TrEMBL record:
List of catalytic residues: 428
Reaction(s) this enzyme catalyzes, per UniProt: [(1->4)-alpha-D-galacturonosyl methyl ester](n) + n H2O = [(1->4)-alpha-D-galacturonosyl](n) + n methanol + n H(+)
Name of protein: Pectinesterase
Bilayer-spanning residue ranges: 35-56
Enzymatic class: hydrolase
InterPro entries for this protein: Invertase/methylesterase_inhib, Pectin_lyas_fold, Pectin_lyase_fold/virulence, Pectinesterase_Asp_AS, Pectinesterase_cat, Pectinesterase_inhib_dom
Amino acid sequence: MSPIRVLSHFAFTVPSTSTTMHTNLTSQTLKRHRLTMLVLPMSALLLLALSVFSFLTLTNHHPSLSLFTKRPTSHLHIHKRLQTQNAELQCAGALYHDLCISTLTRIVPDLTSRSLPEIISATVNETISDVRSTDFNVTNIRRKLPHLTVLEIRALEDCHTLFLETVSQLKSAVSDLSKSSSDKYNDLRTLLSAAMTNQETCLDGFSGSKSEVKISRHFRKALKGISRQVSNSLALLKKINGTSKGKSEYGKMSGGFPQWVKRSDRRLLQTTVNETAYNLVVAQDGSGNFTTIGEALNAAPNSSATRFVIYIKAGAYYEYVEVINKKSKVMFVGDGIGKTLIKGNRNVVDGWTTFRSATVIAVGANFIAKGITFENYAGPSKHQAVALRSGSDFSVFYQCSFVAYQDTLYVHSLRQFYRECDVYGTVDFVFGNAAVVFQKSNFYARQPDPKQKNIFTAQGRDDPNQNTGISILECKIAAGSELIPNQSMFKSYLGRPWKEYSRTVILRSYIGDLIDPAGWLEWDGNFALSTLYYGEYTNRGPGSNTSARVTWPGYKPILNTTEASQFTVGNFIQGGEWLNDTGVPYYLDLQQNLTVLI
């Protein structure tokens, strides 16, 4: 036997010289043993890790094998599914359905517990943020593109102005949504319609620019996104209870005017110049408070709660006048058509946008004008040259005239009423996207440039849910004195579709023999012919025969009484709610019962 004994804890006897070889072998064995003792635990841990990894990998591909995987019926999954289903229900009927669903599921945390006004408010607030962001980007374009033309710079400035108006209108909509939405339905629809119109107007400003694509590519997508969000908000608004039944879509008339014309304003309009109480007088001879209209307007209070009357004595005032947003309830009173004139000649050819070319611009709410001629004398060769642009909600023009050639009267947006007025022009001379009613007014075509046509209207409604359009009731459509001798040389039409859902109706009016038998003209091929809404109702005169009219899907040659009634002062612009105080007489409905409140 070897003298070596293996003791506990590897204790050894001192080896003798004769046993050195055995001792060395034993030492090597011990080292291997120690190594084995170290490796075995590490191997076990590695095997355990590999087993866990394999198990997790398997359960990742086969969730049903995992003890920790949430079941498909978990609360989170159910909530997400209900959220999507609710969004799909709310968005039914929206033109941009997918965008509507994605927006609601993203910005409204719990759709099932939110009222419809709350949902619409959330979408409108989201749109406000988008408008502000786009405004910032558009403002910076001038730094990115330093070599812009004067027209392009002005178009960018127009966009900034329009974005500010849009934010104001959308904020007003949010405020109205916090109240009784049914009572504010018409106001909400008007505000959203105007906000949408502003985006299109911004883009329109670049249509005559050589760099249109280069400039608009920076923000065209954003503007289209804003318009689509507002369109979806309009679609959601239609679902509010109490807005579609038992109540006129557009409102009521009273005293020959929309109800929104107050009784005190009606009295002002019915009094003579000498009987009117004025706050300020403008006279070129120095006999008044000021010699220019602009000075008087600057002196008017901001956000006035009462009517502020500026009497403008007879004379030709060569100035550009803007009734800005904060100048509300302003009234201009002149000495009559052709006596008090406000004149200018800005035009597109000379570097002005159509939006900015107007001689007079009215934006402040509840603006009224009586007995004034608004004129742009640029001439037919200068193309678009506006005499008056109105974006004033509840605005009234009584016994006024508007004189220009192309694009004479820009009824841009919101609710407007014209009574006993004269409009002179050539191409698209009443255009825009307001909800506007003309009563007892005259439309006269002038002699255009060679190869041009006379087109009385070009309405700009671009969404089927907008409450906008042009309504012409008890008016006269005829050739002006300068055209009559050469009438046979130029074709004349009632209107053409400027935008996809263009809407114009002519009711109980006189149509002269200058109108082509087709009645209406295409804008560009088949554009909008299926989506427009053009109608005629019991008109008279040699041009009123509808037997040879266009056969477009959207044209209605003979409206029935129910259809025609939707475009009266009472129904179309809620006349019974605001016209009563202006003093302007008006027809409430198709019965033509003249309302004159005193």
